[in-house]
Amino acid sequence: MPALTETMRERIKSLFARYPSKQAVTLPALHMVQDEFRCVSLEAVKEIAELLELHPAEVHDTMSFYGFFRDEQHRLGQHRVWVCRSLSCALRGGEKLLAHLCEKYHVQPGDTTDDGKVTLEFAECLGACEGAPCLLVDDHCEMNVSTERAESILSKL
Amino acid sequence: MAAFEPVLLARVGKPDSPSLATYQRDGGYAALKKALAMSPDDVITVVKDSGLRGRGGAGFPTGVKWTFLPKGHPGPIYLAINADESEPGTFNNRILMEDDPHQILEGIAISCHAIKSNTAYIYLRYEYGKSYRALDKAIQECYAAGILGNNVMGSGFKLDVYLHRGAAAYICGEETGLIESLEGKRAWPRIKPPFPAIEGLFRKPTIVNNIETMACVTHILNRGAAWFKSIGVPADPNNPRDAGSYGPKLYCLSGHINKPGCYELPLGITARQLIEEYGGGVPGGRSVKAVVPGGISMGFLSASELDTPLDFNGPGKVGCLGLGTAAVIVIDDATSMVDVLYNCCRFFSHESCGQCTPCREGTAWMTKILHRIRSGQGQIRDLDLLLEVANSMGIIPGTTICGLSDGAAWPVKNAIKKFRPEFEEYIQSKRSTITPAELVSAH
Amino acid sequence: MPTVFINDKPVEIGAHERLNCIQAAQRADVEIPSYCWHPALSVVASCRMCLVEVGDKKPDGSVAMQPKLFPGCQTPVKDGTVVITNSQKVKDAQKATLEYLLLNHPLDCPVCDQAGECYLQDYSYKYGRGYSRLQEPKTLKPDKDYIGDQITLFTDRCIMCTRCVRFTREISGTGELQVINRGSVEEIDIFPGEPCNNKLAGNVVDLCPVGALCSKDFLYKQRVWWLKSKPSVCPDCSTGCSITVDQNNDELFRLKPRFNPQAQGHFMCDDGRFGWKYIHSDRRLKSPVARKDGLVTANTWEQILPAVRSAVERAVGTTPARFAAVISPWSTVEEAYLLSNWLKRQSEQVTLAMGPVRIVGEDDHYPKTVTGAPPSQVKFTIRAEKAPNRRGVEMVLRHFQGACLGFDEIAKKLANGELDGLYVMNADPRATFDDAFVANCAKLKLLVVEDLLSSPLTERAQYVLAGGAWAEKDGTFVNHNGLAQPIVRALRGPGDARPDGRILWELSGGTGLFRAAMIRQQIANEIHSFAPLILGDLGDYGVSLNSAAAAVVEKQLQPV
Questions:
Q1: CB distance A62–B436 less than 8 Å?
Q2: Within an 8 Å CB–CB cutoff, is residue B129 touching chain A?
Q3: B329, B340, C90, C241: which one has the fewest Cβ atoms less than 10 Å from its Cβ?
Q4: Considering only CB atoms, which chain C residues are within 8 Å of B352?
Q5: Is residue C270 part of a domain?
């Protein structure tokens, strides 16, 4: 049972033309897989390696460097919510916000809520410092997030 | 002081500002047209003459960097645009990408013509989803309008621009870390020499430039090198090594400030002016204890150093690493510098790529020491140990491969030197200011 | 000649040599400590152990030093380069680097295999601070014994030099090893389910400067300071890797490759590295045996050697054309010469032949590529010819009888009843003489077998001479490329087994001790193709016998 769908394989192959080396498609391929399956399985790594003419260990090496990609034992929930903990946000309550959300949803940073809906993580500077404290909810940034607003955002997910 | 008429931020906030239609209506892509009618070398000359220095943090003269490419190279030559913007406190690139992407694309196209590159990669940090969507749309608009592709604006010049998303690693903002990441490997910066201009992406000559730098290129071609040079702080005529601080700069203001935001001002404004005249001062009637002048890698200005001009020379004169990204973070007098320093050290140890020994072990050690101090178990000699560790790491002494360790060391050096009494008092009090909140996000 | 200055000491280097600071300093007998740098691997300059001060000496004698430190491994030297390795700045950097490396390093020396040959120990002793200032708990990492069938990893001892990862990517090309995570929590690992089991895997244990990667075969077996080392040559294929034999009390503990730019370079394969266990097998012949009608009649050298001599002389004297000798491609040049000379001196009609030459598969070239395409630059080859000295034995046989017969021809002669007497000298522990051959030996009036392991053939012989393994002998092997290298007696065989050279020396009437170097010189004098061995001492890298080298030596030997 192959891990990559046929569509994914086609999309990965279509990116080859952009770069002189197939290895450059590693990050785009990993993102594609994680967006779809909420994790990157070992089988997916092997198939990506085969497509890109790399050793599985080379793809896995890159994947583990970023801390962004999850293996099957640590799959993401439906939604991924990052709370910034770098200086500008910490000065305006970012860490307190994270602690509050962790307590409210009964998770440690990095974990997923029991209902599988939300993975709550800390992030380093999200580049939204003028709106500290801030959240990154999937692919959208929310600024000036008070505790109430954060709870409201998460409850709608 | 006289209000500065924004140039880089001129279109930000206007309706439909990211679109090609409004950009062209506002005179967009005239600079590119002008540049395409010039020879590549003439374009380089204009950029050199403008005195533009890179806005990514290192401040290297852009036009000069372009001349490092080998002459007569058969190619391909690549332009890699550093949109990884991860220096804490920095968000100016984000605003440019989200609200005026064409300004950047025009600068990219001009630069590619100048350096004879037919392929540009924008390495964009993953967390900037809105920037990704804005740039992606703008690039597609350009291809549809013949501004990108096989025949740029009918000139015969061929240019492809590709977006490449990162995966949340600060070290991808280091130019060779970016290159390694783009090539699909772990982002371990390369040893230099060779420098990217000689051997960069895919081992071909590569120029790496910042987003804001690209935007500046557009305006330099539009309004001329002399215009750019008329703004900012001229070079000291008695110092041949001073390249001046020319042009407008986007200053990011955040932290304990009433009006955080991105302010476009001539290079050379002081921290005090930025905080009081533009930032509306410190909330709650508090006063400034310390200011980060250009992203946390640059260290701290003390309250007595607020009249430091924020140009390429000023922060260095008061012991900071430099201007960096001009991301100004204000810290009020109710905040403990010990807590602030811990936050900085934790950031660098989390982001250290781990390749070379002093940074890999040193950043983690400094974080552990500060954690112990903040647990109420510090000793005065820990401060000297922290200074010793900080002094032993970096490309300045030559002990590491890249500048992340200089950035990790500088906040430690500045904080302990400029705020030593506060650190000593904290240690002697044996108190702990570790909040339950932080234990939750402990690395 | 370009001159480089190492701490004020001038060193001349070759006009076309490209050296880094570490290599230039070696010429001046100055050590610049390093971990991640290795001459066979790409330069990463990540350990930062080799930081030195560099500068330029101008023609007017003034010296301009660079303000900051540079890694010696990535800095090339040229005429006028000044390298300072002992200034306070350099010493402080060395102390700092070692303190960092030891920061989270476990205090495992008492239980770590590497103790005694550990670069972390050695450099800490020479260049370290002498104490650590860490007061916090050390970062812990789990041990991984799944890295390979032969390899186990003590992860927290690792100093992240990445030599092992670069080896699997650049030399073996099999890419099993990787780095996972980022920063101070980085670890070496494999892709789950794909252990490092390529045929060159054992080299990563040698490459590891500390006791992180360990050989499961050697783990906890012996402290290295009890080992006695001798340089030798691996016998398992015709590549002839230069190696070191480590033993204690005549027990062989391990083989390691020895750098030889003329032979194989820096590495060796696992077949050779781990394939010596038969040396201590209980199938080893521990004494000579004489048999009559299937019963053992004597088992001492004093009884058997004279008996063999007279039996052979009688057989050759009676029907020389029906006497043959088979010489293994695992025998040394000296052994082949002694046996051939002894027999041919008695009669020209004696037939000499090569023993069975095992060919397994094809030559195996490295690095491998993901697509299976052949490597663009071969860095290591495991050869299909599984014998160390076929060329050397062949050269001896050609000298004595013009042509070298193969083993099959002897087997055919035997089957056709054309032989009365047969002397089989076998030194290949994996050679098999098939049932038909063994059965046909019943047709012989005299069968002498010199071997190291018992087998159906030795059971059949009237005289069995208990020979030595390669590690127990002095001699010469000639590899696939005509490189003649010395093998050295590193340990004694079991019981009464003797090195074959000694057996043949005494059989052929020699008195006193068997000395391989002396025989070598005799051979060089007598056999034109061995002339380059005339000095007797073959040096660290061996002596090339191929025609170009031979021509040079011949010129040098011409009477003036």
A1: no
A2: yes
A3: C90
A4: 182-184
A5: no
Neighbours of chain A (3+ CB pairs under 8 A): B, C
Residue C74 has its nearest CB partner, among B169, B191, B352, at B191
Query: B247-332, which class in CATH?
Result: alpha beta
A84 is in an annotated binding site: yes
**Would the CB atoms of C370 and A42 count as touching at under 8 Å?**
no
For CATH 1.20.1440.230, the residue range(s) in chain B are: 337-440
pLDDT tens-place values along chain B, 443 residues long: 467 899 999 999 999 999 999 999 999 999 999 999 999 999 999 999 999 999 999 999 999 999 999 999 998 999 999 999 999 999 999 999 999 999 999 999 999 999 999 999 999 999 999 999 999 999 999 999 999 999 999 999 999 999 999 999 999 999 999 999 999 999 999 999 999 999 999 999 999 999 999 999 999 999 999 999 999 999 999 999 999 999 999 999 999 999 999 999 999 999 999 999 999 999 999 999 999 999 999 999 999 999 999 999 999 999 999 999 999 999 999 999 999 999 999 999 999 999 999 999 999 999 999 999 999 999 999 999 999 999 999 999 999 999 999 999 999 999 999 999 999 999 999 999 998 878 776 64
In chain C, the number of structural domains is 2
Task: Write out the residue limits of the CATH 3.40.50.11540 domain(s) in chain B.
Answer: 20-231
Q: Does residue C318 lie within any of the structural domains?
A: yes
Residue among A53, A60, A66 whose CB faces C178 most closely: A60
Question: Is A134 labelled as part of a ligand binding site?
Answer: no
ipTM over 0.95: yes
The CATH H-level superfamily of A6-72 is NADH-quinone oxidoreductase subunit E (1.10.10.1590)
Q: Show residues of chain A in contact with B438, CB under 8 Å.
A: 95, 99
Residue partners of B339: CB distance under 8 A and separation at least 6 = B374, B433
Task: Report the b/e string of B369-404 with b at 16+ CB within 10 A.
Answer: bbbebbeeebeeebbebbbebbbbbbbbbbbbbbbb
Read off the DSSP letter of residue A117: S
- A89 labeled binding residue: yes
Q: Does residue C156 belong to any structural domain of this protein?
A: no
Chain A residues within an 8 Å CB radius of C178: 57-58, 60-61, 64
SS (H, E, C) chain B: CCCCCCCCCCCCCCCCCCCHHHHHHCCCCHHHHHHHCCCHHHHHHHHHHHCCECCCCCCCEHHHHHCCCCCCCCCCCEEEEEECCCCCCCCHHHHHHHHCHHHHHHHHHHHHHHHCCCEEEEEECCCCHHHHHHHHHHHHHHHHCCCCECCHHHCCCCEEEEEEECCCCHHHHCHHHHHHHHCCCCCCCCCCCCCCCCCCHHHCCEEEEEHHHHHHHHHHHHHCHHHHHCCEECCCCCCCCCCCEECEEEEEEEECCCCCEEEEEECCCEHHHHHHHHCCCCHHHCCEEEEECCCHHHCCEEHHHCCCECCCCHHHHCCCCCCCCCEEEEEECCCCHHHHHHHHHHHHHHHCCCCCHHHHHHHHHHHHHHHHHHHHHCCHHHHHHHHHHHHHCCCCCCCCCCCHHHHHHHHHHHHHHHCHHHHHHHHHHCCCCCCHHHHHCCC
State pTM to two decimals. 0.96
User: For domain A76-155, is the CATH number 3.40.30.10?
Assistant: yes
10 Å CB burial of residue C259 (0-12, 13-18, 19+) is middle
Q: Specify the CATH number of the domain B337-440.
A: 1.20.1440.230
Domain limits, chain A:
6-72, 76-155
> Could you tell me the fold of the domain covering B20-231?
Rossmann fold (3.40.50)
Residue from C100, C129, C155, C185 whose CB has the most chain B CBs within 10 Å, to mutate: C100
